């Protein structure tokens, strides 16, 4: 089989890239190791920056999102028994939207298939090669048979555990890594929202986050030990922790209901450099991951592919290769801004076990950020997202 752009991975990065290329008449094939159902059901984060929402709308993917997403003007930070609101809209003119990642995945899969797009599910990429020359290929296994996809370019959108990052030659690969000494226990709860907006809560016992998916489904996270087993958390233990950490704040009454999808999310920051080698480009989690505190993972994936789509369009329409050359540096600028923000939010919100100094220092920092317009604006600008450059054809 042959295509212009061979894409590995049907997460937000690979799917959106394929869609953007299609809008400009560029052919692609997506190889995805999981089933369609698995991709559409996998619970991940769900917060979209304004720029991500605008891009989805601009490219015809916004119908259901506009009906179902919950649009928020602000967030709350709780600490030291206090509740403080950051008015993102007033400070930046922007809003954020709650719309589960798997809903975006469903919408783009439907749009690609309706347009005749080629997504091969249950196709496991085994090898990428030829990208340092001019004959890139991807070897993959589908229904027990090995196949080869020849392409002009490879887009490695295969997430943090994929094969494309591993294929970067050791002499040019550089990885930047930070692991955190705690994890999050995430879950869904069938209950009306505890509050109208997201609540990030610092508590000496551990961080807690209240977020939501709809008027009947909330999503909750609790800071837990780094190697925690979700089985150690009974429903009673979970609710006790939420009541102690979150429920002690003025006017907050934690809404309870049946819990499901209880799972541990590790916290890690990672950046790959460069994000391009010859005719292979990495985008999204394959190139970088962030701890979920800043809600940047999916937004960064969207930002990468908007830069990559523009580079492909410049090449196929105008024979320009300068945007390929600029790809890695352009993406990494935003990636490092988001890395800093995610690290900062994480470091400010999670008490360090046994360190009374850090606990007091974090409270002082939260007080400084929430009581100063400059501090709140910094948080609001980064949370709602830096502007996205146009993905369209450059003039
Ligand atoms: N062959 C085929 N598909 C693969 C392979 C492989 N060898 N390895 C991984 N994949 C697939 C995975 O099954 C997954 O569906 O690549 C896809 C990668 O998707 P994501 O992990 O969702 O990554 P990305 O599209 O970059 O989106 C980033 O995902 O993890 C969240 O919080 C993160 O929101 C961020 C978003
Ligand atoms: C979520 O809704 O899952 C979510 C929202 C904000 C975060 C992390 C996760 O910071």
Question: What is this structure's SSE topology?
Answer:
Elements: E1 2-8, H1 12-23, E2 28-31, H2 36-41, E3 47-48, H3 50-58, H4 63-68, E4 70-72, E5 75-79, E6 82-86, H5 88-92, E7 96-98, H6 101-114, E8 118-120, E9 123-129, E10 137-142, E11 145-156, E12 174-190, E13 199-201, E14 208-212, E15 217-225, H7 235-245, E16 259-273, E17 276-277, E18 280-282, E19 288-289, H8 297-318, H9 322-349, H10 356-371, H11 373-384
Parallel strand pairs: 1-2, 1-11, 2-8, 5-13, 11-18
Antiparallel strand pairs: 3-7, 4-7, 5-6, 9-10, 10-11, 12-15, 12-16, 13-14, 14-15, 16-19, 17-18
Helix pairs in contact: 1-6, 1-8, 8-9, 10-11
The structure holds adenosine-5-diphosphoribose and P-hydroxybenzoic acid.
P-hydroxybenzoic acid (PHB) is lined by residues 45-47, 98, 198, 211, 219, 292-293, 295.
List keywords for this structure.
single chain, 395 residues, alpha+beta, FAD/NAD(P)-binding domain, D-Amino Acid Oxidase, Chain A, domain 2, 2 domains, 8-stranded mixed beta sheet, 11 helices, 19 strands, 29% strand, globular, binds adenosine-5-diphosphoribose, binds P-hydroxybenzoic acid
């Amino acid at each position: 089989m042959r295509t212009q752009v061979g894409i590995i991975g049907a997460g937000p990065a690979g799917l959106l890239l394929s869609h953007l290329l299609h809008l400009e008449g560029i052919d692609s094939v997506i190889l995805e190791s999981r089933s369609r159902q698995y991709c559409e059901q996998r619970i991940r984060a769900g917060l979209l920056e304004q720029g991500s929402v605008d891009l989805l709308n601009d490219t015809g993917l916004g119908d259901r999102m506009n009906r179902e997403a919950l649009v928020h003007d602000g967030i709350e930070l709780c600490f030291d028994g206090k509740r403080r609101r950051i008015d993102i809209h007033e400070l930046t003119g922007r809003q954020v939207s709650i719309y589960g990642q798997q809903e975006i995945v469903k919408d783009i899969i439907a749009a690609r298939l309706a347009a005749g797009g080629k997504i091969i599910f249950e196709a496991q990429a085994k090898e990428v090669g030829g990208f340092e020359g001019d004959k890139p290929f991807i070897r993959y296994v589908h229904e027990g048979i090995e196949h080869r996809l020849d392409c002009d370019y490879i887009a490695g959108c295969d997430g943090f555990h994929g094969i494309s990052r591993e294929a970067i030659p050791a002499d040019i690969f550089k990885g930047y890594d930070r692991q955190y000494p705690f994890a999050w226990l995430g879950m869904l709860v069938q209950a009306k929202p505890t509050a109208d907006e997201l609540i990030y809560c610092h508590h000496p016992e551990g961080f807690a986050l209240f977020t939501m998916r709809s008027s009947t489904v909330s999503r909750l996270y609790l800071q837990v030990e780094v190697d925690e087993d979700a089985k150690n958390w009974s429903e009673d233990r979970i609710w006790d922790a939420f009541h102690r950490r979150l429920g002690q704040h003025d006017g907050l009454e934690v809404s309870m209901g049946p819990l499901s999808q209880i799972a541990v999310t590790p916290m890690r920051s990672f950046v790959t450099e460069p994000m391009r080698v010859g005719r292979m480009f990495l985008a999204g989690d394959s190139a970088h991951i962030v701890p979920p505190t800043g809600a940047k993972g999916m937004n960064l994936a969207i930002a990468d592919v908007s830069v990559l789509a523009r580079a492909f369009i410049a090449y196929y329409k105008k024979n320009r290769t300068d945007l390929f050359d600029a790809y890695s540096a352009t993406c990494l600028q935003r990636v490092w801004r988001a890395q800093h923000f995610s690290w900062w939010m994480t470091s400010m919100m999670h008490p360090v076990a046994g360190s009374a100094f850090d606990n007091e220092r974090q409270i002082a920092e939260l007080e400084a950020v929430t009581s100063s317009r400059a501090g709140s604006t910094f948080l609001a600008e980064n949370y709602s997202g830096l502007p996205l450059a146009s993905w369209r054809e450059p003039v």
